Amino acid sequence: MISKRNIAKSLGMVCLILVVSSCGSLEKVTKEANRTVPENYTSSSATIDSTNTAEVHWQDYFTDPYLNALIDTALSNNQELNITMQEIEIARNEARARKGEYMPYVNFGAGAGIDKPGRYTSKGANDATTDIKPGMEMPDPLPDYMFGLNATWEVDIWHKLRNARQSALRRYAASVEGKNFMVTNLIAEISRSYYELLALDNQLDIINQNITLQSNALEIVKMQKQAARVTELAVRKFEAEVFHTKSLQYDVQQKIVETENRINFLVGRFPQKVERSSDAFANLIPDTIHSGVPSQLLENRPDVRQAELELAAAKLDVKVAKAKFYPSVGISAGVGFQAFNPQYLIKTPQSLLFSLAGDIAAPLINRAAIKATYNNANAKQLQAIYNYEQTLLNAYIEVANQMAKISNMEKSYELKSKEVDALTESIKISNGLFRSARADYMEVLLTQRDALESKFELIETKQQQMNAFVNMYKALGGGWK
């Protein structure tokens, strides 16, 4: 006779054999993510300073009140950011759903029915021959009333369900970091567009000043033609130069409209005038930026943190996929009341019913599909590792590039300023020489054109300098805290 103890031992041996055979041919990812970064952003042996501009709040980093008002509005109204907020809510609900999977499922049920078996069936014939005392006959047809609780629970002995929940929690946290990275990008994009708008305003002022200057020169040339000192060719050349400069005016005005509307789109509003102060643009001087040490990118950059959390989730997914090879253990139970007459429904113990059952199941036939899922989880883990390493490398290079750009733009702006001063002085000299007939009109035209181009380039250099100031803050991971 087979005892219950022997049955339990046999089931245990079967589970052990299934587990060993399930794991024998599995391939496991052995690569680990490389989290090491250089000690400094430059190859010099300068003293390492851990002071980091990324810790500065964006309201303190950007001092223009008009720009700060735009950023503050965008953080509330930007549609793309609001879409991302809903994605975070979806990820949060997914984590909650995963939590419920490893808790018991308890359902309440109630029902009523009626049963009339045929007389010449096994059940009908059995009921007909039942000897019941008068007044205690079985009703025909037979009603059936019941209510009770049913519970099912998968015993998570391999932590398959718990790991799935932890993976969902990691992805929820990663979605939050994705939102933070979007905030950083949004602040940077609005700031760059704002400084571009200031630069266009200054370019438009330079064009208007040159139109006045060239128009005055044209009048002088016309008077000199009347005095037979120059020909009609000189007059036409100066007129063409005035028309060319006026055409630039409308090109810049169109760029101003497009830039304003780009800012309005980011702020989440219909086109309207963007309030700004353009007068002090040429005198803007970026504050001193402290880059800190590269290892701080691991904490300050939201995209690096997001990639790290995605990697952690991918590792847990591998464990979940591996656990599907193991036997699953389930428990089901029920308790309730059932009777053919409502007045007997809650009469105990006669109407009380209960059940308790356990089961164990392991995959035998469809193992190829489970193995494919496991291999996919391994491949996605490798993807997450490479993505993390790439994100960290990109963050480091962005900071290194912007550090070099800030330094180079500062030197370039100093030289461009000297070039503009020299050409502005040359305009006065060429005009004086032209009046005294000691310079050709082409020299005057070329000097004015060179001066206009140099002023444009100076404004563009200032814009690039301010963009580097913005991009450095973004590269360090500032703006989202």
Task: Give your account of this protein's structure.
By secondary structure, the chain is of the alpha+beta class. It has two domains: 29-103 and 158-326 and 372-475, Outer membrane efflux proteins (OEP), CATH 1.20.1600.10; 105-116 and 138-155 and 330-361, Outer membrane efflux proteins (OEP), CATH 2.20.200.10. 62% of the residues lie in helices and 10% in strands. The protein contains eleven helices and four strands. It has helices spanning 4-23, 58-61, 65-77, 79-101, 122-128, 160-226, 232-267, 297-300, 302-323, 367-435, 441-475; strands spanning 105-115, 142-155, 328-339, 352-361. It has a four-stranded antiparallel sheet with strand order 1-2-3-4, with no helix packed on it. Helix 6 (160-226) packs antiparallel against helix 7 (232-267), helix 6 (160-226) packs antiparallel against helix 9 and helix 7 (232-267) packs parallel to helix 11 (441-475). The mean pLDDT is 86. Residues 71-98 form a coiled coil.
Main sheet: strand order: 1-2-3-4
Which structural class best describes the helix and strand composition? Answer: alpha+beta
Which whole number gives the mean pLDDT?
Answer: 86
Q: Could you tell me the strand content as a percent range?
A: 5-15%
Task: Could you tell me the CATH topology label of the largest domain.
Answer: Outer membrane efflux proteins (OEP)
Give the CATH architecture of the largest domain: Up-down Bundle
Whole-number total of structural domains: 2
Unreliable segments of 5+ consecutive residues: none
Please give the share of residues in helix: 55-70%
Sheet of most strands: 4 strands, antiparallel
Number of helical elements: 11
Radius of gyration: 40 Å
Question: Given the C-alpha coordinates, what overall shape results?
Answer: elongated
Quantity of strands, as a count: 4
The CATH class of the largest domain, by name, is: Mainly Alpha
What is the H level of CATH, i.e. the homologous superfamily of the largest domain? Outer membrane efflux proteins (OEP)
N-C termini distance: 71 Å
Order of helices and strands: HHHHEHEHHHHEEHH
Organism: Owenweeksia hongkongensis (strain DSM 17368 / CIP 108786 / JCM 12287 / NRRL B-23963 / UST20020801)
GO molecular function, one term: efflux transmembrane transporter activity
Family: Belongs to the outer membrane factor (OMF) (TC 1.B.17) family.
InterPro entries: MdtP/NodT-like, OMP_efflux
